[in-house]
Amino acid sequence: MIDRTDPEGTIAAAAQRCSNWGRWGEDDVLGTLNFLTDDKRVEAARLVRTGRVFSLAQPFDANGPQRGWRRRTNPVHTMLDTGLDAERGTQGFPHGFGGADDVVFMPLQCSTQWDGLGHIFDHGQAWNGRPAGDVVTSEGDRVTGIETVGARLTGRGVLLDFGDLPDGHAITADELDECAQDQGVEVGQGDIVCVRTGQLARAKRDGWGDYAGGPAPGLSFTTVDWLHAKEIAAIATDTWGFEVRPNEFDEAFQPLHQVVIPHLGLFVGEMWDFEDLAADCAADGRHDFWLTAAPLPVSGAVGSPLNPVAVK
């Protein structure tokens, strides 16, 4: 149980109880990715049996989920050169050569993405107890920028499929364990856990509505001990914010983020699309797979878009 009226005390207690500060040395920039070792990747590679592949990314286009909160917009895709330019011979190339080029402008966390370790702070402190201002400056994240983990987010993925949860449903640790047991899969050290709540499927069917920032099913704050004890490498959901919304306190904003990113060093993925993968997992009864979920190595970024690919 948590005291809804005491977010400050509850968050502080969880941060102290579940802190990984200093666990891998004072200079660590990998956080929970330290659990995802080379041996774990070798084990995960053995999960590939059929070669079936599934993209877990939403489309990156102007029809995405964002509504402009804190200047987050949907991707803007613009052509720099087109086929018409080639037809008219205006590109300046010799011997009939022509081509097309394009550009995309987008916030790095506008669609399927990772939260990096420089994304969230607790009382001005970043991952491993560093002063937030020393980590992220106007030049970006100079310590734990997403490029530091560009090659490390590959390994065993585990899908926990909750079907279609109502908005506001707080997924508990017991429910996580029960779901894993029902699906015949065990969550272990170094895993990348994928939690399907069904909210994205509803948004794709009924329209975005308040998907970006509104009420949503998600992990309960009380799962912080489960996330710590399981020693997972990362976790991703099909929702905008990973944790339940509205949250479980009378006055707080993303309290689970406030603990798991700066204190556990946990990588959090949001707005992933598990629909095709979930259907395949239900069909063959296998809910673990090889997962490649590499962020774009944008130097100094505190998050990154990606195209996660599951291979079964």
CA(first)-CA(last) distance: 38 Å
Record field, number of beta strands: 15
CATH first level of the largest domain = Alpha Beta
By CATH, the superfamily of the largest domain comes out as: Putative cyclase
In one word, what is the shape? Answer: globular
Overall pLDDT score: 96
Q: What's the domain count?
A: 2
Q: Do you know the CATH architecture of the largest domain?
A: 3-Layer(bba) Sandwich
The run of helices and strands is: HHEEHEEHEEEEHEHEHEHEHEEE
The SS-based structural class is alpha/beta
Share of helix, binned:
10-25%
Low-confidence parts: none
Q: Please report which band the strand proportion falls in: under 5%, 5-15%, 15-25%, 25-35%, 35-45% or over 45%.
A: 15-25%
Looking at CATH, which topology of the largest domain would you report?
A: Glucose Oxidase, domain 1
Organism: Lentzea pudingi
Pfam family, one: Cyclase
InterPro entries: KFase/CYL, KFase_sf
Protein name: Cyclase
